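Retro notes - structure team

What went well: the batch runner handled both jobs without manual restarts.
What didn't: labels got mixed up in the shared folder, which is why I'm recording both outputs here explicitly, each with its sequence directly above its C-alpha coordinates.

Job 1
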Amino acid sequence: MTPVTSEKLRAQLSRDEGRIPHAYQDSLGYWTIGVGHLIDKTRGGRLPDEIIDALLDYDIRKHTQELFARLPWVEKELDPVRQAVLINMAFNLGINGLLGFANTLGKVKAGDYEGAAANMLMSKWATQVGPRAKRLSEQMRTGVWQ
Protein backbone atom coordinates (compact mmCIF):
# COMPACT_ATOMS: atom_id res chain seq x y z
CA MET A 1 0.00 0.00 0.00
CA THR A 2 1.38 3.44 -0.97
CA PRO A 3 1.27 6.06 1.80
CA VAL A 4 -0.80 9.20 1.25
CA THR A 5 1.37 12.03 0.03
CA SER A 6 1.02 15.07 2.18
CA GLU A 7 1.22 17.47 -0.76
CA LYS A 8 -1.66 15.83 -2.65
CA LEU A 9 -3.81 15.55 0.47
CA ARG A 10 -3.15 19.20 1.34
CA ALA A 11 -4.20 20.26 -2.17
CA GLN A 12 -7.31 18.08 -2.03
CA LEU A 13 -8.41 19.34 1.38
CA SER A 14 -7.71 22.95 0.39
CA ARG A 15 -9.90 22.47 -2.67
CA ASP A 16 -12.70 20.67 -0.83
CA GLU A 17 -12.77 22.73 2.38
CA GLY A 18 -11.71 26.06 0.96
CA ARG A 19 -8.74 28.09 2.13
CA ILE A 20 -10.10 31.03 4.11
CA PRO A 21 -7.62 33.36 5.84
CA HIS A 22 -10.08 34.59 8.45
CA ALA A 23 -12.71 33.21 10.81
CA TYR A 24 -15.91 32.22 9.03
CA GLN A 25 -19.00 30.18 9.69
CA ASP A 26 -19.10 26.86 7.87
CA SER A 27 -22.18 25.41 6.17
CA LEU A 28 -23.55 24.36 9.58
CA GLY A 29 -22.85 27.75 11.17
CA TYR A 30 -19.78 26.68 13.18
CA TRP A 31 -16.81 29.03 13.45
CA THR A 32 -13.92 27.77 11.38
CA ILE A 33 -10.62 29.13 10.10
CA GLY A 34 -8.05 28.27 7.43
CA VAL A 35 -8.74 24.96 5.74
CA GLY A 36 -11.77 23.74 7.68
CA HIS A 37 -10.17 24.04 11.12
CA LEU A 38 -13.00 24.13 13.66
CA ILE A 39 -12.49 26.85 16.27
CA ASP A 40 -16.09 27.00 17.52
CA LYS A 41 -15.89 26.51 21.28
CA THR A 42 -19.45 25.15 21.40
CA ARG A 43 -18.32 22.20 19.26
CA GLY A 44 -15.01 21.62 21.07
CA GLY A 45 -13.00 23.54 18.50
CA ARG A 46 -9.90 25.51 19.36
CA LEU A 47 -6.51 26.56 18.10
CA PRO A 48 -3.73 24.29 19.37
CA ASP A 49 -0.93 25.95 21.34
CA GLU A 50 1.57 25.23 18.57
CA ILE A 51 -0.59 27.21 16.10
CA ILE A 52 -1.06 30.05 18.58
CA ASP A 53 2.72 30.14 19.11
CA ALA A 54 3.36 30.07 15.34
CA LEU A 55 0.97 33.01 14.86
CA LEU A 56 2.61 34.89 17.71
CA ASP A 57 6.09 34.29 16.28
CA TYR A 58 4.89 35.46 12.87
CA ASP A 59 3.33 38.61 14.34
CA ILE A 60 6.42 39.43 16.41
CA ARG A 61 8.64 39.10 13.30
CA LYS A 62 6.24 41.22 11.24
CA HIS A 63 5.95 44.02 13.79
CA THR A 64 9.69 44.00 14.50
CA GLN A 65 10.52 44.25 10.79
CA GLU A 66 8.01 47.08 10.30
CA LEU A 67 9.33 48.96 13.32
CA PHE A 68 12.99 48.63 12.30
CA ALA A 69 12.16 49.62 8.71
CA ARG A 70 10.25 52.75 9.77
CA LEU A 71 12.51 53.70 12.70
CA PRO A 72 15.98 52.25 12.01
CA TRP A 73 17.41 53.95 15.09
CA VAL A 74 15.34 51.61 17.28
CA GLU A 75 17.36 48.62 16.07
CA LYS A 76 20.69 50.45 16.13
CA GLU A 77 20.45 52.53 19.31
CA LEU A 78 18.11 50.83 21.77
CA ASP A 79 18.76 47.90 24.03
CA PRO A 80 16.56 44.81 23.46
CA VAL A 81 14.41 45.52 26.54
CA ARG A 82 13.36 48.96 25.28
CA GLN A 83 13.05 47.68 21.71
CA ALA A 84 10.56 45.17 23.11
CA VAL A 85 8.45 47.99 24.57
CA LEU A 86 8.08 49.55 21.13
CA ILE A 87 7.46 46.19 19.47
CA ASN A 88 4.77 45.46 22.06
CA MET A 89 3.15 48.83 21.37
CA ALA A 90 3.36 48.28 17.59
CA PHE A 91 1.76 44.87 18.10
CA ASN A 92 -1.11 46.53 19.97
CA LEU A 93 -1.51 49.74 17.96
CA GLY A 94 -0.08 48.85 14.56
CA ILE A 95 3.03 50.65 13.32
CA ASN A 96 1.06 53.73 12.26
CA GLY A 97 -0.57 53.94 15.68
CA LEU A 98 2.83 53.75 17.35
CA LEU A 99 4.20 56.44 15.03
CA GLY A 100 1.45 58.70 16.37
CA PHE A 101 3.44 58.79 19.63
CA ALA A 102 5.84 61.35 18.11
CA ASN A 103 6.72 63.08 21.40
CA THR A 104 7.27 59.80 23.20
CA LEU A 105 9.40 58.43 20.36
CA GLY A 106 11.43 61.64 20.33
CA LYS A 107 12.16 61.22 24.03
CA VAL A 108 13.11 57.58 23.52
CA LYS A 109 15.48 58.50 20.71
CA ALA A 110 17.05 61.22 22.89
CA GLY A 111 17.55 58.72 25.73
CA ASP A 112 15.02 60.46 27.97
CA TYR A 113 13.40 57.23 29.13
CA GLU A 114 11.85 58.87 32.19
CA GLY A 115 10.09 61.42 29.96
CA ALA A 116 9.07 58.75 27.46
CA ALA A 117 7.57 56.64 30.25
CA ALA A 118 5.65 59.64 31.58
CA ASN A 119 4.31 60.43 28.10
CA MET A 120 3.19 56.83 27.65
CA LEU A 121 1.15 57.04 30.84
CA MET A 122 -0.49 60.34 29.83
CA SER A 123 -1.86 58.94 26.57
CA LYS A 124 -5.35 57.80 25.66
CA TRP A 125 -3.75 54.43 24.92
CA ALA A 126 -2.76 54.10 28.59
CA THR A 127 -6.39 54.50 29.67
CA GLN A 128 -7.42 51.86 27.16
CA VAL A 129 -4.86 49.19 28.07
CA GLY A 130 -4.43 49.96 31.79
CA PRO A 131 -1.92 47.61 33.45
CA ARG A 132 -0.17 46.95 30.14
CA ALA A 133 0.73 50.64 29.85
CA LYS A 134 2.01 50.71 33.43
CA ARG A 135 4.22 47.67 32.85
CA LEU A 136 5.56 48.93 29.52
CA SER A 137 6.23 52.44 30.79
CA GLU A 138 8.15 50.99 33.75
CA GLN A 139 10.12 48.79 31.35
CA MET A 140 10.90 51.83 29.22
CA ARG A 141 11.90 53.87 32.26
CA THR A 142 14.14 51.23 33.88
CA GLY A 143 15.33 49.05 31.01
CA VAL A 144 14.27 46.02 33.07
CA TRP A 145 11.77 43.41 31.82
CA GLN A 146 8.41 43.70 33.53
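Job 2
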Amino acid sequence: MTDATLLEVREALAAQIAGRLANLDSSYGELQVLPRRLFSPTPPTIDIYPADPVQEQTGMGYESRDTFLTVRARVTMADDDAGQDLLWEFADTTTAASLLAAFAADPTLGGTADNSTVEEQTGFRIYEDTPGSGGYLGCEWRLRVVR
Protein backbone atom coordinates (compact mmCIF):
# COMPACT_ATOMS: atom_id res chain seq x y z
CA MET A 1 0.00 0.00 0.00
CA THR A 2 1.41 3.40 -0.96
CA ASP A 3 1.21 6.51 1.19
CA ALA A 4 0.31 8.74 -1.77
CA THR A 5 -2.75 10.93 -1.45
CA LEU A 6 -5.49 10.98 -4.06
CA LEU A 7 -4.28 14.45 -5.07
CA GLU A 8 -0.82 12.99 -5.76
CA VAL A 9 -2.34 10.10 -7.71
CA ARG A 10 -4.31 12.37 -10.01
CA GLU A 11 -1.30 14.67 -10.52
CA ALA A 12 0.85 11.66 -11.45
CA LEU A 13 -1.80 10.34 -13.83
CA ALA A 14 -2.11 13.72 -15.57
CA ALA A 15 1.68 13.98 -15.88
CA GLN A 16 1.88 10.45 -17.31
CA ILE A 17 -0.78 11.19 -19.94
CA ALA A 18 0.73 14.58 -20.83
CA GLY A 19 4.19 13.06 -21.15
CA ARG A 20 2.97 10.26 -23.38
CA LEU A 21 1.00 12.64 -25.64
CA ALA A 22 3.52 15.52 -25.64
CA ASN A 23 4.23 15.06 -29.35
CA LEU A 24 0.61 14.87 -30.47
CA ASP A 25 0.08 16.19 -34.00
CA SER A 26 -0.40 19.95 -33.66
CA SER A 27 -3.11 19.97 -36.35
CA TYR A 28 -5.52 19.13 -33.53
CA GLY A 29 -4.42 22.11 -31.47
CA GLU A 30 -2.52 22.16 -28.20
CA LEU A 31 -3.68 19.40 -25.87
CA GLN A 32 -4.69 20.40 -22.33
CA VAL A 33 -4.26 17.67 -19.69
CA LEU A 34 -5.52 18.62 -16.24
CA PRO A 35 -5.68 16.64 -12.97
CA ARG A 36 -9.12 18.07 -12.19
CA ARG A 37 -12.46 18.61 -13.87
CA LEU A 38 -12.35 21.48 -16.35
CA PHE A 39 -15.63 23.29 -16.95
CA SER A 40 -14.43 25.74 -19.61
CA PRO A 41 -12.09 23.72 -21.83
CA THR A 42 -10.08 24.78 -24.82
CA PRO A 43 -10.20 21.49 -26.72
CA PRO A 44 -8.64 19.13 -27.21
CA THR A 45 -8.78 18.53 -23.48
CA ILE A 46 -8.27 15.63 -21.11
CA ASP A 47 -9.45 16.08 -17.54
CA ILE A 48 -9.45 13.76 -14.54
CA TYR A 49 -12.05 13.60 -11.78
CA PRO A 50 -13.68 11.12 -9.37
CA ALA A 51 -15.80 8.42 -10.99
CA ASP A 52 -19.13 7.32 -9.57
CA PRO A 53 -18.73 5.54 -7.21
CA VAL A 54 -15.38 7.00 -6.25
CA GLN A 55 -14.33 4.16 -3.93
CA GLU A 56 -15.07 0.51 -3.24
CA GLN A 57 -14.35 -1.41 -0.04
CA THR A 58 -11.84 -4.19 -0.80
CA GLY A 59 -10.83 -5.48 2.62
CA MET A 60 -11.02 -4.94 6.33
CA GLY A 61 -10.79 -1.38 7.64
CA TYR A 62 -11.70 1.95 6.15
CA GLU A 63 -8.37 2.30 4.31
CA SER A 64 -8.89 -0.88 2.27
CA ARG A 65 -10.50 0.79 -0.71
CA ASP A 66 -9.87 0.97 -4.43
CA THR A 67 -10.41 4.36 -6.01
CA PHE A 68 -12.09 4.98 -9.36
CA LEU A 69 -11.12 7.90 -11.58
CA THR A 70 -12.70 9.21 -14.77
CA VAL A 71 -10.36 10.33 -17.52
CA ARG A 72 -12.38 12.30 -20.05
CA ALA A 73 -11.23 13.43 -23.49
CA ARG A 74 -13.15 16.20 -25.27
CA VAL A 75 -12.83 17.83 -28.67
CA THR A 76 -14.59 20.69 -30.36
CA MET A 77 -17.43 19.97 -32.75
CA ALA A 78 -16.42 22.91 -34.97
CA ASP A 79 -14.29 20.54 -37.08
CA ASP A 80 -16.36 17.41 -36.67
CA ASP A 81 -14.11 15.13 -38.72
CA ALA A 82 -10.81 16.10 -37.06
CA GLY A 83 -12.33 15.90 -33.58
CA GLN A 84 -13.75 12.44 -34.15
CA ASP A 85 -10.48 11.29 -35.70
CA LEU A 86 -8.60 12.40 -32.58
CA LEU A 87 -11.03 10.56 -30.29
CA TRP A 88 -10.55 7.45 -32.41
CA GLU A 89 -6.76 7.85 -32.02
CA PHE A 90 -7.15 8.16 -28.24
CA ALA A 91 -9.22 4.93 -28.24
CA ASP A 92 -6.97 2.96 -30.61
CA THR A 93 -4.38 0.76 -28.93
CA THR A 94 -2.01 1.01 -31.92
CA THR A 95 -1.57 4.80 -32.24
CA ALA A 96 0.92 7.16 -30.61
CA ALA A 97 -2.09 8.97 -29.09
CA SER A 98 -3.48 5.82 -27.44
CA LEU A 99 -4.71 6.61 -23.95
CA LEU A 100 -4.72 2.91 -23.13
CA ALA A 101 -1.00 2.84 -23.92
CA ALA A 102 -0.51 5.95 -21.77
CA PHE A 103 -2.26 4.26 -18.83
CA ALA A 104 -0.34 1.00 -19.32
CA ALA A 105 3.05 2.75 -19.59
CA ASP A 106 3.29 2.79 -15.78
CA PRO A 107 0.41 1.15 -13.88
CA THR A 108 1.93 2.44 -10.61
CA LEU A 109 1.50 6.05 -11.79
CA GLY A 110 5.00 7.05 -10.81
CA GLY A 111 4.85 5.00 -7.61
CA THR A 112 1.72 6.71 -6.28
CA ALA A 113 -0.33 3.51 -6.69
CA ASP A 114 0.26 -0.21 -6.34
CA ASN A 115 -1.57 -0.75 -9.62
CA SER A 116 -4.09 0.83 -11.96
CA THR A 117 -6.25 -0.70 -14.68
CA VAL A 118 -8.80 0.54 -17.15
CA GLU A 119 -12.18 -0.97 -16.35
CA GLU A 120 -14.22 0.50 -19.21
CA GLN A 121 -14.34 3.06 -21.97
CA THR A 122 -17.46 4.81 -23.20
CA GLY A 123 -18.46 5.57 -26.73
CA PHE A 124 -18.66 9.13 -28.01
CA ARG A 125 -20.93 11.49 -26.07
CA ILE A 126 -21.81 15.16 -26.08
CA TYR A 127 -20.77 17.05 -22.96
CA GLU A 128 -22.10 20.41 -21.83
CA ASP A 129 -20.78 20.88 -18.29
CA THR A 130 -21.99 24.46 -17.94
CA PRO A 131 -25.43 25.24 -19.41
CA GLY A 132 -25.14 27.49 -22.43
CA SER A 133 -21.42 26.87 -22.85
CA GLY A 134 -21.84 24.84 -26.01
CA GLY A 135 -21.24 21.16 -26.31
CA TYR A 136 -18.09 19.14 -26.82
CA LEU A 137 -17.72 15.65 -28.21
CA GLY A 138 -15.83 13.20 -26.07
CA CYS A 139 -15.49 9.87 -24.30
CA GLU A 140 -14.35 8.55 -20.93
CA TRP A 141 -12.13 5.88 -19.45
CA ARG A 142 -12.80 4.54 -15.95
CA LEU A 143 -9.65 3.58 -14.03
CA ARG A 144 -9.42 1.46 -10.93
CA VAL A 145 -6.53 2.59 -8.76
CA VAL A 146 -5.19 0.30 -6.02
CA ARG A 147 -3.10 2.02 -3.34
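One thing worth noting from job 2: The mean pLDDT is 92.
We'll revisit the folder naming next retro.
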